[in-house]
Structure formats: C-alpha cells, structure tokens
Description:
Layout: H1 14-24, H2 37-42, H3 56-71, H4 87-95, H5 100-117, H6 124-129, H7 133-150
Helix pairs in contact: 3-4, 3-5, 3-7, 4-5, 5-7
Amino acid sequence: MNTHTKTDFTPVDQDLYEKAFQLLDPDPDPIPEPAAPAALAAVPLTATLPMRLTGPVEKVLTDALNFLDTHGWTRYSLINTEGARCSIGALRAAAGSRNAAYCDAGNLLLDEARRQHGKKWEAIPSWNDCHSGAEVRSVWEAAIRRAHHLNI
C-alpha cells in the first residue's frame, strides 16, 4: 500500500495567523485558572446537575391523582356529595380547562386503562365505574410513569 504524505498545502506563517485572530477578537477573554480543590468542594453537587422539567401532561396527571388522594375517588358521578371525584372529574379539576394537556392526559390515561384492563373501554367514565380504587390507582400511576418517560 502506498501512502503519500506530501501535500500541496502552503505552510502557514504562525505570526500572521495570530495577528489575523487578534484582529477578529482584539480582547479575548482570558483563559480562567483551574479552580482550587477546596473551591470545588464548596459547590453543592445539585448545583451542577441539570433540572428536568415536568411536562404538561405529566403535571395534569400528577395533580389529578393528588386531587383524588386529597378529596377522594368515586364511581358513577363526576363529583359526589362529599366532594370526591371520578377520574374525569379529577382530570378537569387538575387541568382547569379542557386544554391540550387535559385531552392528552385523558388519552394517555384511557390508553393505559386499555393496556391493563382490555381494549373494550370506550371512555374513561365507563372504565372508572367498573373497577376498584386500587385498579384505578394502578392505571393512574402507570400513566404518570409513561408521561414522565415520554417527557410530555
């Protein structure tokens, strides 16, 4: 195998190269000195980690489940006389309006209900009314995990 190392490149005059960059950036920022080990120890580790923001769908689902934990869960009505809500009622309370996050959270919740309890469920109210509190909670938790994983 023949490898040629000769090129037709013209050698660069290093002084001219430095002068050209000085003209482009006449006052470059000085290169910072490395921090002393003691200074690094004073910085908390959490200050350097990136923060993960909660997506709007995950927030609606989490807030709705917290609402159910606080006010109670019910079947057969949107809101019962004690203030407990069904799954749709909790979604509405958490979202505040029928916005995109509300719709996406409802779709994700129904999709998870179908994954766990079969494809026959047409809507959240019918699924909510036919399952126990533990089964409903399991679906809520799985939907929140999926929203978190999908970062939505």
